[in-house]
Predict the structure.
Amino acid sequence: MPHAAPDPATASSGPPPAEAPHAIVGWRWAPAWILAYVALLFAPGYAETVLTLGALTALVRLVLVRFNTGARLLSDPAWVLTSALFAAYWLPELISATDAVDPGRALREAAVDLRYLPFLWLVAAAVATRQGQRTTFGGLAIIIGLWTVDALLQGLTGTSPLFFGIDSLKQAISGHGMCSDAEIASVDRLSGVLGPCNLKLGQVIASFSPFVLYAVGRRFRLGGWLVAAAAVGVVVVLAGSRASWITYGLVLVLSGWRLLGWKRLLGVFAFGVLALAVLDQTTPQVHDRLARTAHIVSADVEGLDSALSGRTRIWRAALCMVGEHPLNGVGARGFREAFPACDPQPGRTTSWGEGPALHAHQLLLEVLAETGAFGLLLWLAGAALAWRAWAVADARAREAARPAMLALLVTVFPFNTHLAFYSTFWGGLTLLLAALYAGSLLAQPPDEGDATV
């Protein structure tokens, strides 16, 4: 007898289909670790604790998934690119320790930074699905958006509501605030939620601004993008870091032209120049920085050094270190120890205050001075791998990864001054952006309805 056709009602009530073998399903809790890490940047110690715990959790989770057949946390290409980008960052650190100025410290830095590798796998797993990307990128946009509004309120009232709440809580718990009285008294720029003892608000907002602009642009189109661009731009200018002005200008160019076109984008920049002129007349801190920048046109070295806040002296010292340690540098984070021997103006008062310069303030010079030619070659290899992955990706993957790509690109833009990439704060953020880029570009998202584990 012929078999009867299955009853559709009975078939639909059966157990759900099993995960396709080797499906990339991500991990639903991974975005929470990334968002917690970024949200806690006002307290770097707590942020580092979240990073370390996230790295350990990722290792445990990967081991458990390894012995479970079927679904995986991230694709092989994402795993390979994330690991390769970490290696391009970490191997120069390790090799530089062999004959560093302070070998013990260099080896400790390299050992501690090994925790970044499992954390980067966790970051890539967070954006391994479309839902994970929406949660992670959307969460970053909300965090930076809140910090922007908070900073605007500080500009209007003189107090950051978020930092005031955090500082009050710290006072109640420990009896002292987040920052010392001297740090609070010496602040000369908008500090926002990060506070007057961690004056990096401009750099952080500028580097993470693509997540805000793309999220607002998708939801509210042109009008929303213009409002968000103006709000973020005011905060970046008032935060005082001229390097972040360049970073944010790149963000506007690379994100705005696709939405506005070149003619309207030029109008945005014309409005920005007008707004900067108004801030120059109404805000002493902005006026001082613009006046200092004008010294660049001076024909003498002192005028240029004044315009760049002592950078030329630091860069000349970095070139000295490159000449004396061309192969593997003076060691990661060894710049301050090597600076006195290479200071081109020893005994002269510095533009940055007491003590030696702490880092080279420029990506290429930092890599060359601290990790040598070997380090630069590996950084270039990492950049080439990241570009190759973009070049061969399809349009859908590129669109998914575009905010992370732009954030990473402007952060490492070589023709700018920078924070220290081998520091805990800025190195961690840069590697986070690298993993968001690799994970979202090579996510291989599953079909609609696939669950996360």
Summary: The longest helix spans residues 201-238.
